[in-house]
Amino acid sequence: MRISDGIVDLLTEEIFTRTGSLPSSQNGDVYRTLCTKLLRCGKLFCTSIMYPHSIGWESIRQGFADNEMASNDHLDFFALCLMDDDKTFRKNNHQSTQGFRIVLPLNFILNIMEPGDENFNLDYALKMLRMRCTPNDLNSAYVIFIPVFRNKHWTVYVLNRVHGQIDILDPLDWSQKDDQHRYHIPISEVMRSRLDRIFQSFTNGAFDRIFDWTFPYVKVPKQQGEHDCGFFCIHYMEHYNPFTRHAE
Questions:
Q1: Domain CATH number, residue 231
Q2: Strand, helix or coil for residue 141
Q3: How many Å apart are CA 28 and CA 17, to the nearest integer?
Q4: Disulfide: which of 161, 164, 171, 208 matches 223 by Cβ 3.0-4.6 Å?
């Protein structure tokens, strides 16, 4: 069922009237999109697979208020909505749900980004991955999104199987490229090594070897506000085209 813009407008107005605050103009469109997806699922609350608590209107309102940043819950729940959309609406339109996107769960990502090999738990990573997708899903996907929160900043890394690279979608417009490299290269190298190991184990060697994939910076829309990185990453995950490398 398609949710009309009028219903979303009314609910959005009601939520912010009750709480006494309005979304910033930069975040308003993303907020409307998230509200629409909540309504489309027919739920005011949804328990994420990766989190024991629910995400609801109040949590969304708090995250989208001025000077607030999107949380792990927001991005992970939005990821579940995107993947549900892929399965539900593509199937209803007689399109294949295979070969589309996968967004890796945040608990999985936190585990693979643990510093030091002694803190990395392969069995836990495989368990988390099985809760998000099957080996066949992973082998069929041509784009895999990896949202990472580090040093109070969100970035989306993309396993782009079309080009055989790990695209870096960073909403921050870095003034010094050396600082950009110092931030991203350590994250990318650890991620690449551990994901290669996990995916080989998960698919019994069927997935691409990614241990030597490079990390291009892709031109994407940049954040204007200091706290808006998470909302831009939500936009990237929904609209990024791995073929054209545009957030369409």
A1: 3.40.395.10
A2: coil
A3: 15
A4: 171
